Amino acid sequence: MDKKQMELLQGTLDMLILKAVSLGPLHGYGILLRIQQISKDRLEIQQGSLYPALYRLEHQGWISSEWGESENKRKAKYYRLTAAGRRKLQTEAEKWNRMADVIAGILQSTPEEV
Amino acid sequence: MRSWSRLRSWLRAALRRSRMERDMDAELRLHIEAFAEDLVHSGVPREEAWRRARIEFGGLERAKEECRDALALRLVDHVARDLRFGLRLLIKNPGFTTAAVIALALGIGADTAMYSIVNGALSWDFGLENRDRIVMVNSVDRGRSQEWGASYPDFRDFRTQVKSLAGLAAYQLTAVNLSDHSALPERYYCVQMSANGFSVVQQKPMLGRDFIAEDERPGAPAVIILAYHVWRDRYAQDPAILGKTVRVDEVPRVVISVMPPGRRFPEDTDLWVPLVPDATLERRNARGLMLFGRLRDRMSLESARLEFRALAERLAVQYPDANKDITAEVRPIVEISGLYYIKPLFFALFGAVGFVLLIACADVANMLLARAGERAREVSIRVAIGAGRVPIIRQLLLESVVLSIAGGFLGWLVAVGGLRWFDRGMGSTAKPLWLHLSLDRNALIYLAAISVGTGILFGLAPALRLAKTDVNAALKDGGSGMSGSKFGLRLSSLLVTFQMALCVVLLAGAGLMIRSAVKLYSAPIGVNISQVLTMRIHLPEKKYAPPESWRAFHENLQKRLSALPGVASASVASQLPFGGWTTLSFELEGRKNDEVQLPETGGLVVGNNYFQTMQVQPQHGRVFTDSDGLAGTPIVVVNQSFAEKYWPGEEPLGKRLRVKEEQILGPWLTVVGVVPDILQNFRHHLQHDPLIYLPFAEQPARRVFLIARTQVPPTTLANAFRSEVQRLDENLALDDVRSLEERVAESRLTVSLFGAICTVFAGVATVLAAIGLYAVNAHAVSQRTREIGLHMAMGASRSDVARLVFGQGIRPLAPGVAIGLLLALGVTRLLRVVLVGVSPSDPLTFVGIVLVLTIAAALGCAVPARRAMKVDPMVALRYE
């Protein structure tokens, strides 16, 4: 845990959660692990803020939940992506990529170009 | 779609709140537990692992709160909290709560009851599925601007030529004796209708077949269709009735079908028979038929109007003798019904209850405004510690909605009770089909809507005012903090002015109705109506063809009836008091008359001892006697109005007149007596009309009323009368058997019932307005205790103080009355239909209502003024 971690950008947690559950149903802790695993522990996620985000996403119909059994035989609430959520993830990802391109373009510009 | 899923998720969370909370707790704990386990697996000691897991997760309660926010559950929590708070406050102030809830219940209840009646009436479908496409066609005489039905030949021509209608049918309404062996003979309404009638209104019998064209050919086998209620009540729903023969006015007819329940078009009839043209009907100038048709799809009323005008034009050219100046008018069916004519009344009543409700709202608003002073401190503290304006307004509005919903629940009882009272008030009168005296689903929705709506209406002003409280002032002077105190008082007196104005309008309506009722009930009818039994009888044409047989039947019957124990005398009359007359053309001997257009007068045919039976003494000459009859000179009796109109200052006795009926002049009739006026006009109950009385012996009629003066309560004799009639003819029905007193009461029902309703409304409104004035003044006095104390300390006497308070309190009266009078003058016009002998702007009434309202207002101000007098200056000044 001594590796340098970055704080999440505002509004990106939702997208990461959608991405995480798009690969298969997960419970809350599983989502946290999945994001850390994909990001190779480079992102810092406030654990307490994960659940309000999950509730909000479910409230908006992008993910759905049901109670199931976890790997170590415990009852756990599993989240999965809904069809609406899949579309949302797609548009969000596209928007993110476009934004990243634009920002990168701006930052890479040299004095001569301006 | 997304908002739908959000609503679903919200509802799930809100409705299964405890389960949702449990799940959330389990889920979060599981997370921490799993995290700690992982740490233990990676070698961290168990205790340290749990500690770190909890720290990393952060505040558990905060996370939960944020989760609830995400589900938009916070609003629910707050509303629930506000509701609890509001209820506690209302329970803590039982006096205020009771007064407000009762005021609201009266307003909401009356409004709902009236809505239920008006809505039922206006949405009444006449037993038609397509009432908006059904039109009536009438003939209009342009020369005399009179309106009639149509003749059969005209109908036939219209029917074959019309393009804008999908069908045109004709009918006429009759009353018939229905007799068979299933029960006693009964009298029913029967519509003679062209065979296409049901197909025009797109209805089918529920049993049996519709009329077919064959049924209306002269000489076809006679058939009849029953309404559902006749089949149910007379034939006990026996399906075997189809194909049986019944006697309808002595004509045997085969029952071919039964109509479904609620289908009684036209005229809410009981029976239908085919309209078979005969010699009388075939006359082109006999315009006794009513025509109805269904507009073809995509055809407008206007196009039908134009077409019928053109068709009538063509007939006028073709048949100038009968159809000159006759044109046709097409109207929607709703404009033909009696309902259409009393519609302004409905709106007047609905407006009246609306006013009562508004007055109640203003009352409660005023009470809330008065309380606002007491609440200002509480609100200020909440604002000072960071509450927003919106939550405060929300909470205050919720409180008033709680109040109005409580009022609504009680109002529901008021509405049900009010409708019951109305039902009882109508007594045994046959209720029109459109009258609904129970609360249906629409009425309940309306009740719920106005309950919530009034809460917001009367709560808004006080809530907005409180939310504007000046926090500093309120906390500093420790008192009311009414920085807007002046504004509040002004608002209060504005509300009171408004109440006064509405109250004047209601009182005006009630006053006019009461005056009408007094005039009506104090007017002498001209006959002694107590202990008189009346009933209708009709001798069917088939069995009683020659007029001699009618005379013989009634002579015989009268003898039998007079011999019954308890009967003093019996007679017949063509019409009863308040029952109208027959219009007759006549000419006076020795006068030059316009040959084409003879003068018209009302005429009644009465039995020889009618006047004795009714206990009427002649003014001059004599009335009919038993010896008057076919032999001797034909005679006539006229009433006072007739004598005064046609022989002013002359001796009417011995004068002669003759009646023209169906183009034939009758013999000269000699006037043998003048009787005092008897009220006979069924529309204008106080009007004295010129009338002539013809003896039944000379002018016998098939349909008459039997009249008997009894020595016992009249209706106890009904069965004895029935069996006497049946002894003479077992197929004859007696109909409409009632005491004359009951009939007269019924003819006055509109005025008495409507007057009672108006009076109740106005009474409630006046009490509410007085309470409103009282509330405002009482509040003002309690606010100004110190000031009053100061006045007294400076030497003002108690009566000075009382005068001051009273003078300021009564101030809204004058502008309120002024505005109200202006409004009332406009509104009372709507009442014109039911007013009797009173003009809608009757000055006496208006003076009276100003007086009533002034007294009520004075009472509302006097109580606080008295309280102000009792203020002890020492206590008031120390009171800080």
Q: Can you walk through the features of this model?
A:
The complex is a heterodimer of chains A (114) and B (880). By secondary structure, chain A is α+β, with helices and mostly antiparallel strands. Chain A has a single domain (12-113), classed as Orthogonal Bundle (Arc Repressor Mutant, subunit A), CATH 1.10.10. In chain A, 54% of the residues lie in helices and 18% in strands. Chain A has helices at residues 12-22, 28-38, 47-59, 83-108; strands at 6-7, 26-27, 43-44, 63-69, 75-81. In chain A, the strands form two sheets. A three-stranded antiparallel β-sheet of chain A has the order 2-5-4. The termini of chain A are far apart. The mean pLDDT of chain A is 83. Chain B is of the alpha+beta class and 880 residues long. Chain B is built from 27 helices and 23 strands. In chain B, the strands form three sheets. A six-stranded mixed β-barrel of chain B has the order 3-4-9-6-8-7. A six-stranded mixed beta barrel of chain B has the order 14-15-21-17-20-18. A four-stranded antiparallel β-sheet of chain B has the order 13-22-12-23. In chain B, helix 6 (94-122) packs antiparallel against helix 12 (338-384). Chain B is globular, with a radius of gyration of 38 Å. Mean pLDDT of chain B is 85; it is low at 479-484.
